[in-house]
Specification:
The complex is a heterodimer of chains A (436) and B (458).
Chain A lengths: L1 E6 L3 H12 L4 E5 L29 H11 L5 H21 L5 E2 L5 E4 L5 E4 L1 E2 L8 E2 L13 E7 L7 H10 L9 E7 L12 H8 L2 H14 L5 E5 L9 H9 L3 E4 L6 H16 L3 E4 L3 E7 L2 E7 L6 E10 L9 E3 L5 E3 L30 E2 L5 E2 L11 E3 L9 H4 L2 H24 L1
Parallel strand pairs in A: 1-2, 1-15, 2-12, 8-9, 8-10, 10-11, 15-20
Antiparallel strand pairs in A: 3-6, 4-5, 4-7, 13-14, 14-15, 16-17, 18-19
Helix pairs in contact in A: 1-8, 1-10, 3-10, 6-7
Chain B lengths: L1 H4 L21 H8 L10 H8 L10 H5 L1 H5 L6 H9 L19 H5 L6 H12 L6 H5 L3 H8 L3 H8 L2 H11 L15 H7 L15 E5 L1 H6 L2 H13 L3 E3 L8 H5 L3 H17 L6 E3 L2 H13 L6 H9 E3 H10 L12 E6 L2 H4 L6 H6 L5 E5 L18 H18 L4 E3 L2 H11 L3 E2 L1 H8 L11
Parallel strand pairs in B: 1-2, 1-3, 3-4, 5-6, 5-7, 7-8
Classes of the chains: A alpha/beta (436), B alpha/beta (458).
The complex binds flavin-adenine dinucleotide and iron/sulfur cluster (SF4) (3 copies).
One iron/sulfur cluster binds next to α4 and α6 of chain B.
Pfam families (chain A): FAD_binding_2
Keywords (chain A): Flavoprotein, FMN, Oxidoreductase
GO molecular function (chain A): glycerol-3-phosphate dehydrogenase (quinone) activity
Chain lengths: 436, 458
């Protein structure tokens, strides 16, 4: 019997599993594939919009939650975790992966240029994006300020990054503190592998893991950059070697930053690989490619998760269970053609907003996305009708939680880590108390 | 428009007999007669449907692309998403993407796909179609694992000598297409059958040793003829724990033929084997120290080749990989842990065939029950050999590139021993690192004091 079975290896599942394991518990982490972390931008969004752009997410949290409470009958996950768990969650994640992977401050957002030349708020970011930081805090100027010159550099062999579009839009943005950037576009050529004319970002990143390959890129960048300019490149500057970016930047000798690109995006993958490795080295037992099909329960207590191992189902016994299996995007929540929403793994009752779930307009929030499981402040899953725990030892974290509009709010990662830490700490204290 | 959609308005009988359907003919038979995709298709309809329907679940997230060990090292292969769910839409008999042949069928893509797309399975089936009428002689030969074992065992010293001679290997490469440097099994003078026949029987029962009743041991071809030591040690560990080990007469599971697209003969073999294993007892747990053969029986026969046979289903649900079985005992509090201490770092590679059984990596936890052992996981997706893939002369370089990081890690961290659960992967790791590479049961055998961990040298 394990102490805890965690279902899902996205950001929330990985962080919770590591924290539980570091507290000395035995943990089985079962997942049917990689999570959204790998597809993300390698940044940690805590709260980006409410709906106006947020500069100090934790200071503005109470107001955000009050507005949210007026607009919806479903409590936001942050109403359960509170600001302290957000602070601790983000701090814990950043400390786990280290400064080669994440830098920033949960108290203050910064804005980062995107692959269409917009500015996107976030709290933590990889050090390779630091030279692109635009401050949202008037007291602290960022790396880029009014009048800063940026050269956005495309790689001919890489199709998902168009410097003219990015530079054009970047130059049109009014900066939060007033003024604009100056931006121009340029190109280099870097075939990731011999004769390859259409390379994925990952292949380019893998090529740049090899120090011997970097020179070719460095020479072209040095030739095109003008004095005082900051270079912006697609986020493909090294995959496994965390020093690749710093080395490239030092060799070129100009400020330089990465802009995240569509999947396969490398920054998300770097974080995912790093966390997976930490989990395995801590001896979290990782069951990859294993669907959780259901669970055995008795007397309001979950006893075993049913894992679809090949040949025979495995009934994996544990004392506590954490559902961290994501939302609609990972198939844990499903909408059928009768507009009925269900939770597909354990068949849990869901918190569903009243009224129409999908507006037939692209603008604005879709109520459907706030559907999810309801919890109490310990992240124990409750029936929204009664507020009573569904099972006394079932917790939930991350994208499966009800009440958030993660994409609109830019709150997905913050919710994932805050709820993971909150749930893990509740499990740790409950398992220590008496049952052992 | 509306009455076109409203099918309820048309009573079924007015539809009349279906056009073209001969009396007694099923729709499937009719389709098979007219559709190039279904006609002469080596795949069964069921397996095709099972895997094909999954392609619609693909959200193009590219996670499979990032994990594929072959696409990582060569531009010759266009990658799992393209060759799998994308190309499959356009396959109607003919193959639309010939780089498909570079897929090693390691299954890493399927494992990492968060949307349950059966990418590797789709590829395996498409390859069977693509190679149907021009299967190289080599692919037919190297899949005859049982025959090879039977032929080589009586001549073990000669065979081993011959396989080490460069001129002979060059000739083999030219004529058969097996790369001159590819790993080869070491032929043994005695098969497991010979050992069972000549040994004195299980060690006498020790005082206090429980009687845990019978289990069936499935040796697999490699375990019968080449990795005989693994089979012996599994039998001895199980007997040490108090099991009675039954080893019925048994043939090959057909995995090598399956992975080369020779489905018809592979299907016959796996069914026959399961009938043989069933003959030893229909309720007993079947244990295998061959991770890949266990995977074939547990799921690949069904998922890739559409085998729906009661004997295979029965054995498949009762089959346990050795480490899985021992760890289950441990979790039930029934595994004696009076291990002697073995102070060593052991690099361990979980082969794809074990990863894809959805049971995690039981070997790591099992070996770390032994005091002093610290396992270093390879963290690599594949060793490159993928059954018979890395033997082929046109794939050899790709396979070596796939395994490179793994080989370096094994060389860097080993203290005389590396561990991996499947035979061909062990040959690959041994061949490319020079490090003695063994099944996890080898370590457990030593920890119970039944042998020295370094003996015999393999
Ligand atoms: C493409 C993309 C871009 C995003 N960009 C942003 C952004 O810019 N800002 C932001 O705030 N948020 C963003 N998000 C959302 C953010 O990534 C998620 O909110 C957050 O990572 C949620 O993580 P999670 O751990 O809850 O779930 P997920 O990352 O979805 O992981 C779910 C895990 O559960 C597993 N699983 C599911 N079902 C089962 C089952 N039956 N059995 C076993 N395992 C199962 C999956 O395999 C997976 O491992 C993005 C998400 C995606 C997909
Ligand atoms: S991982 Fe699955 S869903 Fe994603 S691109 Fe590959 S097949 Fe499609
Ligand atoms: S089976 Fe292996 S080699 Fe083939 S596409 Fe999938 S990951 Fe790549
Ligand atoms: S390690 Fe694998 S992936 Fe590689 S061939 Fe061996 S069993 Fe498969």
């Amino acid at each position: 019997m394990r102490d805890v079975m965690v279902i899902g290896a996205g950001l929330s599942g990985l962080v919770a599993a590591i924290r539980l394991r570091q507290a000395g518990l035995s943990v089985a982490l079962v997942h049917k594939g990689r999570g959204g972390l790998q597809l993300g931008q390698g940044t940690v969004d805590v709260l980006g919009y409410r709906p106006q752009r947020v500069a100090r997410p934790l200071d503005e949290l109470d107001e955000f939650l009050a507005d949210q409470h007026r607009a919806s009958d479903i409590p936001h996950p942050y109403a359960h975790t509170g600001a302290d768990a957000i602070r601790e969650g983000v701090r814990y994640l950043a400390e786990l992966v280290g400064e080669d992977y994440l830098v920033g401050d949960a108290e203050v957002n910064v804005a980062l240029p995107t692959a269409v030349g917009a500015l996107r708020p976030t709290a933590y970011y990889p050090p390779s994006m630091a030279d692109g930081v635009i401050s949202l805090d008037p007291a602290k100027p960022g790396a880029l300020t009014a009048g800063s010159a940026v050269v956005v550099v495309g790689i001919r062999e890489f199709k998902d990054f168009t410097p003219e579009l990015i530079a054009g839009n970047l130059a049109l943005n009014d900066l939060p503190g007033g003024g604009r950037l100056e931006a121009r576009a340029d190109w280099v050529s870097f075939p990731a592998r011999d004769g390859e004319v259409d390379s994925t970002g990952l292949n380019i990143a893998r090529a740049l893991d090899d120090p011997a390959r970097r020179g070719a890129l460095v020479d072209q960048l040095k030739a095109l950059v003008r004095p005082g300019e900051t270079i912006a490149l697609p986020a493909v500057l090294g995959h496994e070697d965390p020093a690749a970016f710093a080395d490239l930047r030092a060799q070129v000798g100009s400020p330089m930053f990465e802009i995240p690109v569509p999947p396969p995006g490398v920054p998300g993958m770097r974080l995912n690989d790093r966390l997976t490795r930490i989990a395995k080295e801590a001896r979290v037992e990782v069951f990859l490619g294993s669907n959780v099909l259901g669970a055995d329960s008795a007397g309001g207590v979950l006893q075993a998760g049913v894992v679809g191992t090949t040949g025979h189902d495995t009934h994996l016994k544990a004392r506590a269970f954490l559902l961290a299996a994501g939302g609609f995007e990972s198939g844990t929540l499903e909408l059928d053609s009768y507009q009925k929403v269900s939770e597909t793994i354990l068949g849990l009752p869901l918190a569903i907003p009243a009224g129409e779930l999908i507006h037939d307009t692209w603008a604005g929030q879709q109520p459907l996305f706030s559907v999810g499981v309801a919890t109490n402040d310990d992240m124990v899953v409750v029936d929204p009708a009664t507020n009573k725990p569904v099972y006394s030892n079932l917790y939930a974290a991350g994208g499966v939680l009800a009440g958030a509009q993660r994409w609109d709010e830019k709150s997905g990662e913050g919710i994932a880590v805050a709820s993971a830490v909150r749930a893990a700490d509740a499990i740790i204290s409950n398992l220590a108390g008496g049952q052992r | 428009m509306s009455d076109l959609l409203d099918t309820n308005e048309t009573p079924a009988k007015e539809l009349g007999p279906r056009p073209g359907l001969a009396p007694g003919q099923t729709v499937w038979e009719l389709l098979a007669a007219v559709s190039p995709r279904i006609k002469d298709n080596p795949n069964t309809y069921e397996a095709q449907q099972l895997n094909r329907v999954s392609l619609d679940q693909c959200v193009k997230c590219t996670i499979c692309e990032t994990m594929c060990p072959v696409a990582k090292v060569t531009p010759l292969f266009s990658g799992p998403k393209f060759v799998g769910p994308q190309a499959e839409r356009f396959r109607n008999g003919e193959s639309v993407d010939h780089t498909l042949d570079y897929c090693s069928s390691c299954g890493i893509c399927t494992l990492n796909c968060p949307q349950d797309v059966k990418i590797a399975e789709i590829n395996s089936m498409a390859r069977a179609v693509m190679k149907k009428d021009h299967m190289p002689l080599r692919d037919r030969l190297i899949t005859q694992t049982e025959l090879e074992g039977r032929l080589l065992t009586p001549f073990a010293p000669v065979a081993n000598w011959a396989l080490k001679q460069k001129p002979i290997r060059v000739a083999v490469e030219k004529v058969v297409g097996v790369h001159r440097d590819a790993p080869m099994p070491v032929a043994q003078s005695q098969s497991i059958k010979g050992w069972l026949k000549h040994r004195k029987g299980p060690a006498p029962r020790r005082p206090g040793q429980p009687d845990r009743g019978p289990v069936v041991f499935f040796t697999g071809c490699a375990g019968t003829y080449f990795e005989v030591e693994t089979s012996k040690k599994t039998i001895e560990v199980l007997e040490h724990l108090g099991f009675e080990v039954l080893v019925p007469k048994q043939g090959c599971c057909g995995l090598a033929e399956q992975s080369n697209g020779l489905f018809d003969s592979a299907r016959k073999r796996v069914v026959k084997l399961c009938e043989q294993l069933n003959a030893a007892g229909k309720e007993l747990t079947v244990i295998s120290s061959s991770g890949s053969c266990a995977g074939m029986i547990k799921h690949e026969a069904h998922e890739i080749m559409g085998v729906d046979d009661p004997a295979v289903r029965s054995v498949g649900t009762r089959m346990r990989e050795t480490s899985e079985f021992l760890l289950d005992l441990f979790d039930e509090g029934e595994l004696p842990t009076d291990f002697k201490s073995l102070e060593m770092k052991i690099p361990y590679h979980a082969p794809c065939q074990v990863k894809s059984q959805g049971m995690g990596m039981p070997a790591i936890r099992l070996m770390e029950l032994v005091p002093g052992i610290r396992v270093i996981e390879s963290e690599e997706n594949c060793c490159g050999i993928a059954g018979t893939y890395g033997l082929k002369k046109e794939k050899y370089d790709v396979a070596q590139a796939v395994g490179r990081n793994l080989f370096e890690k094994v060389k860097e961290h080993n203290e005389g021993l590396a561990v991996c659960d499947t035979e061909t992967c062990r040959w690959q790791i041994r061949n490319s690192t020079g490090v003695s590479t063994v099944h996890p049961v080898h370590v457990i055998h030593a920890a119970y004091g039944l042998s020295d961990v370094f003996s015999p040298e393999v």
